[in-house]
């Protein structure tokens, strides 16, 4: 017990006193919180819309003022002709243009369904799609139904997003960030641990001491677990208090799944570290693993959109399971009955990666 | 042939260089490098040798003082300077030939001149057979030779060699020396206007004696400049050799060192060399209680004696560490035993059939060239490598069945400082006390003892990596013996440290051995070998000779017809004899 304690304390000192390890600990989480929380955005704000009004009646003016009054719309650019419309879109003066036909007012007056055409700049497909959504809502408010002329889908459906009714992107990003930060710090802190000793020449010193292999391994895993739990806690608090993301599920389940998730990552990190001779190799190895781990989690692109074989591969990605759990616990009050079936695969993955890490460590002891 | 011009090729005047705060790396250093001579730059690690060489090569800027290189500022005439840094920039994944080509490109050697230049260099370095071999697969000595060849690609006027002898065994070191010696000979092709000038830096004080003139550096200060004989001349009548004494040599050494009229003393096989204090008569053998047959006779002084004299004498002989150490119980069982230990990596045999037993309270040395298998043997015995065959035991614990217990019974100190540099001294001590399973109160006592014996108090909060070298050495020893192990493993424990620190270290070891501690040491340093009770000479993965230092010298005398060989002579003679025997065997087989 004394040996294990000494080993664990030493490992904590090693990461707290080494400037490089400290950087790995604190810089990426803060940086990501800043970048994702403040800068990167999935919202489209301050976009300009063209308006080709062939009707010119009261309903059309009402529509135009609704448009101009929307908080997301920057300015409404009046267009005189089809050619002007084409020119505005081509030269990116506007991202979307609305065409009101000459019978628009007449139809509104008769109580019929009036339609407005929308031309979207398909070159900026993501933003255009979002803008299309906004315009649709504005049109609903005006009482008109929009008919997009560029896409085949006909207007009329009303989309209501459950769990995140306003599609606030922060509600989605911040819980996912816990997964990303956990993956980055869990893997990189562990990956440095053995490689650092090899590089600095202290590995032999460790191996000739009476420490047993399991004591060394547990000692080396304690700091990354602690770091991951602390980072997770910080994000849990900051997401709710600073960014106002609701946490609707069980905190206990959150920590349980976070712990198992960290174990799975630490196994991966240990395997990288045991295989590396220098810290630089470990750093590259960690990078090589972390990126696909995050890409396959379903954060960057939905797993349903991946080719079938990749969907199978993603089953082995611990961050995929943990992402589902975190999203569920934050927004959906996911019950234990739904969380546990996602913890079991995490447990299996953790058992595999930890065994791999320990095996590689033993195999590379000489 | 022009007469050697008195003008030096390079010189410095009152040079000062500082890195950050603290003591300057160089403090008022003035040296001169004349043509046609080997100038030694001698001093322990951290003395400022590399800094000075980098200043001369124009890679650093001085804070104060003047440097002139080949009549200009440093860096102005790089084409005529050959510079070989400590770890020469060889590309390990390129072959010998490709490395030469690369440096020829970098140095702008015209293609037409290459064949001739390469031919000469490859002959000179005896690397012709290895042209296609990857540089990474060469031995330490061959790497240094290739490094030298690359530095010589365009025959330089001034050759700066930064510790070419580091990591190179005595045989290769002698070859390197002979090669460089040949370069400065005025009748060589290179030798116009008095030949090229060489600055050879080294931490081996015995190399200093062979230089034409020497600059001795210690902690940034120049302690001596001039021909080595001038320094040894100062102490010509103060060096003696005490032999034929009865009783233990280590006990006697302790008594000798503790005397006021002795400035320094070291063990040399069954004899003791001593340096009498200034202006005193050496003590008589009777006064030393050395037995009636003891003889005290004058001995030739060495450069190291002179160095110690400048520093004001060596440490005293009583080890506070040993006095506080427990007595290891007497036992008939060997403390360390190797029975046919063998290690294979794939089809390469790194160590074969190692067989020796080391008794309680014995210092046993493993000596041999790099890559010969001494480290492999050492690592098998301390549990870092699993033997492929044979058995071994440490303190009675079989390495195969009780490896963890065996590890608990040994203290280990490696050649490089291998404590946690980012942890403070106090944290390092705490860690080692904990790892060796000391109880809370025991640990406290052991740590307090270490702090007092090794004078670590003022460094407790400092990072271990930032300690002065001597203190690093002390801390490493303190951590290795914290749990008072019966067996100590030392891997080149004092390479590169200054002679005072080395003596202090061996005083502790001698004291511990007096308490029954058993020591296994690997070394390159012939001085360290002299402290051993017995030595196993390992060459080409085999134990070629085992015996006391004096026995090995006797054997070498018989083999090579030397009289009064040094340990290094014996080492080389025995290796050469082994080579001859093997070649004869191969011829017979063919």
Account of the protein in words:
The complex is a heterodimer of chains A (366) and B (590). Chain A has two domains: 47-148, abc type-2 transporter like fold, CATH 3.40.1710.10; 166-363, no CATH class. Chain A is built from 14 helices and five strands. Chain A has helices at 2-17, 19-39, 58-69, 82-90, 104-110, 125-142, 169-200, 203-207, 213-241, 251-275, 279-295, 308-314, 318-332, 336-363; strands at residues 47-53, 73-79, 96-100, 115-120, 145-148. A five-stranded mixed β-sheet of chain A has the order 2-1-3-4-5, with helices on both faces. With 590 residues, chain B is α/β, with parallel strands linked by helices. Among the domains of chain B are: 10-226, P-loop containing nucleotide triphosphate hydrolases (Rossmann fold, 3-Layer(aba) Sandwich), CATH 3.40.50.300; 233-318, Alpha-Beta Plaits (2-Layer Sandwich), CATH 3.30.70. Chain B has 19 helices and 24 strands. The longest helix of chain B is centred in the last third of the chain and has 23 residues, at 567-589. The radius of gyration of chain B is 25 Å and the shape is globular. The two termini of chain B are 50 Å apart. Mean pLDDT of chain B is 87; it is low at 1-5. Classes of the chains: A alpha/beta (366), B alpha/beta (590). The A-B interface holds A 2-3, 5-7, 9-10, 13-14, 17-18, 200-202, 204-205, 207-212, 366 and B 379, 382-386, 404-405, 407-408, 410, 412, 414, 416-424, 427, 430-439, 463, 489.
């Amino acid at each position: 017990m004394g040996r294990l304690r000494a080993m664990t304390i030493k490992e904590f000192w090693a990461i707290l006193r080494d400037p490089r390890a400290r950087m790995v600990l604190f810089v990426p989480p803060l940086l990501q919180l800043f970048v994702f929380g403040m800068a990167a955005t999935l919202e489209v704000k301050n976009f300009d819309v063209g308006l080709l009004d062939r009707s010119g009646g009261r309903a059309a003016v009402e529509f135009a003022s609704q448009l101009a009054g929307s908080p997301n719309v920057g300015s409404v650019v009046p267009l005189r002709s089809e050619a002007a419309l084409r020119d505005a879109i081509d030269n990116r003066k506007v991202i979307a243009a609305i065409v009101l036909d000459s019978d628009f007012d007449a139809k509104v007056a008769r109580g019929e369904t009036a339609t407005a055409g929308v031309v979207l700049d398909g070159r900026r497909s993501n933003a255009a799609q979002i803008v299309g959504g906004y315009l649709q809502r504005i049109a609903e408010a005006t009482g008109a139904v929009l008919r997009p002329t560029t896409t085949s889908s006909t207007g009329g459906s009303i989309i209501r997003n459950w769990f995140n009714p306003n599609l606030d992107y922060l509600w989605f990003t911040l819980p996912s960030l816990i997964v990303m930060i956990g993956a980055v710090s869990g893997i990189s802190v562990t990956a440095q641990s053995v490689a650092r000793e090899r590089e600095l020449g202290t590995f032999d010193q460790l191996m000739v001491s009476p420490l047993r292999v399991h004591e060394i391994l547990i000692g080396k895993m304690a700091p990354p677990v602690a770091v991951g739990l602390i980072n997770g806690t910080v994000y849990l608090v900051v997401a709710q208090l600073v960014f106002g993301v609701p946490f609707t599920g069980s905190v206990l389940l959150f920590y349980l799944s976070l712990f198992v998730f960290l174990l799975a990552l630490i196994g991966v990190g240990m395997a990288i570290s045991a295989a590396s001779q220098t810290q630089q190799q470990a750093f590259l190895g960690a990078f090589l693993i972390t990126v696909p781990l995050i890409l396959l989690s379903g954060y960057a692109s939905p797993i349903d959109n991946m080719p079938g074989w990749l969907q199978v591969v993603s089953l082995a990605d611990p961050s995929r399971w943990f992402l589902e759990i975190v999203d569920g616990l934050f927004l959906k009050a996911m019950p234990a009955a739904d969380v546990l079936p996602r913890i079991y695969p995490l447990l299996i993955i953790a058992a595999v990666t930890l065994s791999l890490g320990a095996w590689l460590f033993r195999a590379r002891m000489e | 042939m022009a007469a050697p011009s008195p003008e030096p090729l390079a010189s410095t005047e009152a040079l000062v260089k500082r890195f950050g705060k603290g003591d300057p790396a160089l403090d008022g250093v003035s040296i001169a490098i004349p043509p046609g001579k080997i100038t030694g730059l001698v001093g322990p690690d951290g003395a400022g040798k590399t800094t000075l060489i980098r200043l001369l090569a124009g890679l650093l800027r001085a804070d104060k003082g003047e440097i002139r290189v080949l009549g200009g500022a440093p860096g102005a005439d790089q084409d005529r300077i050959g510079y070989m840094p400590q770890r020469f920039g060889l590309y390990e994944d390129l072959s010998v030939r490709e490395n030469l080509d690369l440096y020829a490109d970098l140095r702008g050697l015209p293609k037409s001149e290459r064949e001739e230049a390469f031919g000469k260099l490859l002959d000179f370095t005896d690397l012709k057979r290895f042209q296609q071999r990857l540089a990474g697969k060469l031995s330490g000595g061959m790497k240094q030779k290739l490094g030298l060849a690359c530095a010589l690609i365009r025959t330089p006027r001034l050759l700066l060699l930064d510790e070419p002898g580091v990591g190179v065994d005595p045989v290769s070191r002698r070859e390197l020396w002979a090669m460089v010696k040949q370069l400065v000979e005025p009748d060589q092709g290179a030798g116009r206007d008095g030949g090229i000038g060489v600055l050879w830096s080294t931490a081996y004080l015995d190399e200093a004696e062979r230089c034409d003139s020497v600059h001795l550096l210690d902690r940034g200060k120049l302690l001596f400049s001039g021909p080595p004989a001038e320094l040894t001349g100062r102490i010509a009548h103060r060096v003696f050799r005490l032999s034929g004494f009865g009783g233990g040599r280590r006990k006697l050494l302790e008594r000798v060192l503790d005397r006021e009229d002795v400035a320094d003393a070291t063990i040399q096989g069954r004899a003791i060399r001593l340096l009498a204090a200034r202006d005193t008569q050496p003590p008589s053998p009777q006064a030393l209680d050395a037995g009636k047959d003891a003889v005290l006779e004058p001995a030739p002084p060495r450069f190291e004696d002179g160095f110690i004299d400048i520093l004001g004498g060596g440490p005293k002989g009583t080890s506070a560490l040993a006095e506080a150490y427990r007595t290891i119980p007497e036992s008939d069982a060997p403390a360390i035993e190797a029975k046919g230990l063998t290690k294979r990596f794939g089809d390469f045999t790194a160590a074969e059939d190692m067989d020796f037993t080391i008794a309680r309270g014995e210092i046993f040395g493993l000596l041999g060239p790099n890559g010969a298998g001494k480290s492999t043997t050492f690592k098998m015995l301390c549990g870092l490598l699993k033997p492929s065959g044979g058995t071994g035991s440490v303190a009675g614990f079989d390495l195969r069945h009780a490896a963890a217990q065996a590890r608990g019974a040994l203290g280990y100190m490696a050649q490089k400082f291998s404590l946690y540099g980012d942890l403070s001294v106090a944290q390092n001590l705490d860690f080692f006390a904990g790892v060796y399973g000391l109880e809370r109160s025991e640990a406290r006592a052991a740590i307090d003892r270490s702090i007092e014996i090794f004078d670590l108090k003022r460094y407790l909060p400092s990072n271990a990596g930032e300690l002065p070298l001597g203190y690093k050495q002390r801390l490493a020893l303190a951590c290795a013996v914290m749990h008072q192990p019966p067996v100590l493993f030392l891997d080149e424990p004092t390479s590169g440290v200054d002679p005072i620190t080395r003596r202090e270290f061996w005083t502790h070891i001698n004291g511990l051995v007096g308490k029954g501690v058993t020591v296994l040491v690997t070394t390159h340093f012939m001085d360290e070998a002299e402290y051993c009770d017995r030595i196993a000479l390992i060459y080409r993965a085999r134990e070629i000779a085992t015996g006391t230092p004096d026995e090995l010298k006797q054997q070498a005398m018989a083999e090579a017809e030397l009289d009064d060989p040094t340990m290094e002579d014996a080492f080389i003679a025995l290796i050469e004899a082994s080579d001859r025997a093997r070649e004869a065997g191969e011829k017979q087989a063919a």
